[in-house]
Structures
1.
Amino acid sequence: MAFAVDQATHDGLARARAGQRAIDRRAWLVTAVAGAVALAFAAAILLYDNPAAPGSAAQATVTKLRATTLAAIALVAAAQGVATAVFHTVCGNRVITPSIMGFDALHSLVQTATVFFFGAAALGAGGVWRSVGQCAGMALFAVALYGWLLGRPGLTVRVALLVGLVLGLAFRAAATLMQRLLNPSDFDLVTARLFGNMSNADTRFLPLGAALAAGALALVWSRRRHLDLAALGSATARGLGLNHRREVMLALLAVSGLIAVATTLVGPMTFFGFLAASLTYRLAPGARHARLLPAIAAVAAAVLLAAYFTLRHVFYAGGLISVVIEFVGGLFFLAHLLKGPTRGNTRLIRQSRGQPAIRREQAGD
Amino acid sequence: MIRADAVSKAYRDATALDGVCLDLPAGGLTALVGPNGAGKSTLLGVIGRLTRADFGLVEVGGMNVVAARSRDLARRLAVLRQDNHLATRLTVAQLVELGRFPHCGGRLGPADRAAIERAVAATGVGPLAHRFLDELSGGQRQRAHIAMLFAQDAEYVLLDEPLAALDLRHATELMALLRAACDQDGKTVVVVVHDVNYASAWADRIVALKDGRVVATGPPAELVQSDFLSALYGTPVRVVDTGGWPLAVYHR
């Protein structure tokens, strides 16, 4: 357009560029520091308090076992963190997480149904293939649900989320029903399965899970610029030429793959993804996906490895990691909700069209 | 040019558009006016391929908006909706940069930077460029979105009630800006306005809608008339001549 570029524009844009550099630097700094913390705790978990004699075969065995656990934890952390952030972006909401969409409930249902229909022996048998089956089932669930829902014209993401919530309740109810019908020892087995357990990750599934997660992460990474656009919301993004529905479907495919891998490895974690993502949004505000996603993966890994090490070696409560993480994450979630009109819930309040931004304007002007 | 042929759209039982036929030549500023629920926003959404019509055909610059590739269309057609709320934190500069996405796919080149500079200069959001959108007032946010729209640099520009959050000065400045975009750059601008006086003062032609139908199309001098506006809005409207353009008086 034929408009002269004045001094104020020059200065403003120069300042914005400097601001952008600061934002990028900050995101890198967060990634680097969190990465360093994660590495430090990883080394500590590997080496600290090894009961075997140095240089013995036993020591190597212990270290190897620990390395496997370590890999599982790092994988789960990155998967949960990145999945939550991508989900937030495509849903235009920073509160609701994939877990709320019924993933955890589906996991419970699949585990319970396995025991219910095939007996307790089925949990031990099948190994990798059972895990693969569960993983594929969960991924298919999300893609099928959304493929069906988003194919309907005039449907908002919010209604879809509500449907997800209702389905989650239904899955949970079905799982509960089956659990009541189980005999006590089978019930014990299922319950043990349903609580996430870091130390006892399903490591046979690890190589395949890592490959699946790597594929999903590669997919997300290749769409990072499109995700920046998708974050503007459906209407604006489509106006700028984004095939929004396809973007949402691709993102959901990746998200469901990541969550399925994480859940299959260590069981459900409702608030961990939220915790890692929210923490990173705070630490690196305004970062674009190219910088945000690595930062979230690093922060998530640092938090989970630190929690693992601390609980195992300081409080001797290795089995409680999921419980503690969920407790802290849950408190964080509540605090976020109660903080007042945050971005996440203002959107819900301001849903009705025709009453735009009155609240905000008064606050802003 | 923009062509709508027998466009109909219903939300459940309520008819929003009822066989709308519209031919707008390339170039010039067109204002869509009409009472609430007339179908103005729906028509704009259908032309901008954000809303899908139940029936009918829409062409913008010879492209069928439903069949064309969305990104190809986005280089020629820019559209701004009323509801532009964001969940993520974004600076004004980042938002304006995203306006170049149809041209560069997220990798800004020199031409993109130049377009961004021009858009920021035209909308005067330079001093806000480094700020986060959620720290701004509604009107400032609105201007940031308009800067994004200008950065997109499309021939066809559609705006849905862009004046809603703006004060007198910024509303008038925006209309002058849209006027300049038409006159100096040959853009085709279609804008939904509530205040018929902004249409009267700035538009080349007015399209009046009521109950999902186009009831009249013509220059402001023809349509801004007491009996026509009174019938359109269903309330007494007087029209006084200000010398330059007819002014509708309906406030009491």
2.
Amino acid sequence: MPYVIPEVVDVKQRKTDIGPPHYKNFLPPVIQKNYGDWKTHEILSPGLMVHIANSGDKIWTVRVASPRLLSTDTLREIAEIAEKYCDGYLRFTTRNNIEFLVSDESKVKPLMDELAAKKYMIGGIGSRVSNIVHTQGWIHCHSAAVDASALVKVIMDEFADYFTTKETPNKVRFAVACCTNMCGAVHCSDIAYVGIHRKLPRIEHENFKNLCELPTTMASCPTAAITPDPAKKSIKINADKCMYCGNCFSVCPALPIADPENDGVAIVVGGKVGNLRKPPMFSKLAVAYLPNNPPRWPEVVKATRKIFDAYVAGAKKHERVGEWIERIGWEKFFAVTGLPFTFQHIDDWTYAFKTFRTTTQMKWTK
Amino acid sequence: MEKEELKKAIYQLIEQSAGKKKYKQADVIKHFRQQGIPDADTKAAIRELIDAGDLIYTYFGGSYIELGEKRKGA
Amino acid sequence: MTKKYETPLLDELEKGPFPSFVTEMKKAAAKNPMAADELGLLEKSFRDKVTYWKHGGIVGVRGYGGGVIGRYSQLADQFPGVAHFHTVRVNQVAGLFYTSETIKFLCDLWDKYGSGLTNFHGSTGDIILLGTVTENLEPLATILSMNGFDLGGSGSAMRTPSCCVGPARCEWSMIDTLDITYDLTQEFQDELHRPQFPYKFKIKTVGCPVDCNASIARADLSIIGTWKGPIAIDQDKVKDYAKKGMNIQEEIVNMCPGKCITWDGNSLNINNADCLHCMHCITKLAGALKPTPPFGAVILIGAKAPFVIGATLSWVIVPFMEMKPPYQELKDLIRNMWDWWNEYGKNRERIGELIIRRGMREFLEVCGLEPTPEMVREPRNDPFWFWKEEDLEKKPWEEFLK
């Protein structure tokens, strides 16, 4: 399909509601031929797998990491590599990896050699660390309490060998959300980071009148901490109820909550989305707060290392982080990781009672 | 109600409520339903007003329908 | 020449083995003044530990209410290149497949009309073109449409549907995730481009319970492939796994949540009646085990991030639905639930929140669905429930005690 970018654009020519192009136009011939008729696959190395069709046809996939934020220069380079070895066919994964789709086995090794020479990070397939899903952070978001790309970078640097070579008991899926909106849906990841605030929004009474709607602002609060302030034609915030989620700021710019000194990162662990063995699980709080310490957030990296190493040492083969913790118990999790258990770890929101321990069953860790 | 008449009525509703109440598309449809206008007619009239740029969809934590001139000021 | 900023903090993020987003920004900044100012602004955020973006503004293309996210910097005076820095969401190809030609086209387009910075892809699945000015939006959308592309969703609309790699390259996909995604996207173009709902509505389709697109955690409507037939076993291949060192008892039998597998060192046996269809044994014994038809999908509803009532995972509303084109049963179901949500949903209320507020019974009745045990983990454990007049007239015990 030849693409055109005219010099002069007549915007009246715009067609609406055409939707995306049909995916069949983008599938390599071997996939078109064997669509829905695959027999099995083998992971040949951490960044290489082969899928075998019932017809005997094969397709090789070489996976490399990307930072998700890509310049057109790099995209063109990727496109050219795909042209050289894959007849131009490539895809991305939902975790922001790039996959080169090779139909000719003899091109697999030269492709991997060129990728290695160009310093692409090859790996991420199988029981290991894959790339990190994340949000925009300070790069492009008004409500980010922390940067996202930087956390991805420092965590992936730290655990790079678990992407390229080493194995973990099962997949370890990291995620980063730069505020509690959680656009990255970090609530079901093995280890995830969420940007948090720790102080009340500041009410700009003058702006409230002009910029915000009272009912919407009140409804946005999960704890009903917002009440009208008729005298000021603004609102009041009950400091005892506010838990600094920032949802009011999402609907009302007159309630800024960003705070360089008090914002930071929480770490949640033990979530998963797959149905294998145990049903999907939410992530739970492991570390309530670590400071924003750009550019490389060393405290976050060190705390993650404690969790990660304890998991690798303690989990049985095929156990995800959440399954490992469930088996050993949370008291043991805090003991083996050395992370402190604090008031913040005990739920005090709507469904708190569901998390209290209503049994005498427990393990002694001290 | 004739379509052009309905379009005028929708525009006036949005114009008169500007700065006071923000309407979502479903709110507009429900408003005219009370006057006996079928939902599909209101929806089609909104579509024409939007396509012409007289009204626009805006977003502020949720999507609303507002006057087209707002976009020019943004 | 673009403006050059000193970026000592960001430079630290060019070190280490993982590909650096800072390097990407620098590449774009070398030839694009918008990207250069974006880099300078980000360095300032790193220095001051705070974001410098304002709330979104009112921008878009004629006729649509979504696909463009207005974005303005708080520091437009210092960094004029990011005074306007809007995001354009382009509806991705189902399964995230591309050709090099397509990638190059998008690059040429974006170098001409934007910052040269992209995301492949955003969390919802769209191609994200990061940073352009208002006057470029109409030409961009026009050229995209001339070349077969359209904008994605944003705001209180159906968001761009997405899926796993599916039958294109996975032996476990029991439904055609790409076709379902493409078909639903085309069917609901109006709902995608013109925000007419109380809030966002996400649809994610995955081929099996492994859920490689996090459908159950991230979609208001989760469509997850599953099977009803027995698991087919190739005993020789199972033995190969054992020979190669897999401890079948420990890794397969003991980890089966249905406790329905036995292994005598020679042959693997599955009591399919007790199988929970979790995929553990099938994925660990790739090539040796496989699901068999009938194939279909579990339909689940309601997943979302924490605001406002707490994070939810999707819950079952249809235990098994056949998924054959044109997917009419599914489309009817979706339209029914949308009508109900539009009627009763409050501003910013997701459909799952509305179901919790008004009750599953009303939702199921609206959708024409009968209650079944597969919808719950367990029946209620409180003694408070509703009776309708029509319930009082029924005497079901005369049937079930016969």
